[in-house]
Amino acid sequence: MSKRTSGASNGAAPKTSAAGEPSYDKQKALLSTATGHFSLLKALHMADYITELNGFCGIMSIFSSLRYCLGDPADKTNLYLALAFLPFGLFFDFMDGRVARWRKKSSMMGQELDSLADLISFSLAPACVALSIGLRTTLDHVLLAAFVLCGLTRLARFNVTASSGDIPKDASGKASYFEGTPVPTTLGLDALMAWWVSRGWVLDQVPGGIWFEGSVIEVHPVIALFVVHGCLMCSKTLHVPKP
Fold it and tell me: CA 153 from chain center: how many Å?
């Protein structure tokens, strides 16, 4: 998750545009008052468009997962595509913050876009891949939904704490640590699932097999990886230093 918080979130003076007007105030005014054609597109900053590319990667990953479920299970092309889109999402997630700082333009719009794109690419998309490779029991689905909700809650908390003074910040206003693991760390789960796919461990061959088969609580034990990761994302006491 990139650090695209409003310039006023830490009590420091807001970053200004070339005209001397705070860039986030200018964007807010455009979003509130502009009524012309394509006014929303005109109000977005360059970093916002890069954030949209992050969301695009997550959406394409989800679509690829769905295409695999609807196609030939022996053809894993769409599974590989679903997994391949996610590192590109991380790249755009990294770049939008860099571009925002380079152009000295940050906004609440950018912060909200960033969190929504992260939710798609690093919570919902990995859960869809997990479902596609074989975690398809009712309890699997409930626990995958809980994993996605952990990501949602983690991102909402980040937006709140980023605008408060609760987390220590350095001279530049950058928070010194993350509370809980950052949402993009789900790429570790993506890498693990990519390895399973490369070994053919999908559908009936998912590692660990299935427990309580035929009962209402049948479940794949590997779903515990998603549950644990969701808990780590929501942890309040786990402090992960920022690079």
Answer: 12
CA–CA distance, 231 with 243 (Å, rounded to integer): 22
d(CA 145, CA 149): 6
pTM (two decimals):
0.82
Task: Give backbone dihedrals phi and psi of 221, rounded to 5 degrees, phi first.
Answer: -60, -25
pLDDT in tens, 167-225: 666 665 566 677 889 999 999 999 999 999 999 999 999 999 999 999 999 999 999 99
The β-bridge partners of 177 are 241
The 3 state secondary structure assigned to the chain is CCCCCCCCCCCCCCCECCCCCEHHHHHHHHHHHCCCCCHHHHHCCHHHHHHHHHHHHHHHHHHHHHHHHHCCCCCCHHHHHHHHHHHHHHHHHHHHHHHHHHCCCCCHHHHHHHHHHHHHHHHHHHHHHHHHHCCCCHHHHHHHHHHHHHHHHHHHHHHHHHCCCCCCECCCCCECEEECCCHHHHHHHHHHHHHHHHHCCCHHHCCCCCECCCCCCCECCCHHHHHHHHHHHHCCCCEEECC
Q: Which of 35, 125, 48 is closest to 83 using CA atoms?
A: 125
Q: Please state, in angstroms and rounded to a whole number, the distance separating the CA atoms of residues 113 and 166.
A: 23
pLDDT in tens, 24-62: 556 665 566 656 666 666 667 788 899 999 999 999 999
**Residue 122 and residue 200 in contact, taking contact as beta carbons nearer than 8 Å:** no
CB of 232 closer than 8 Å to CB of 226: no
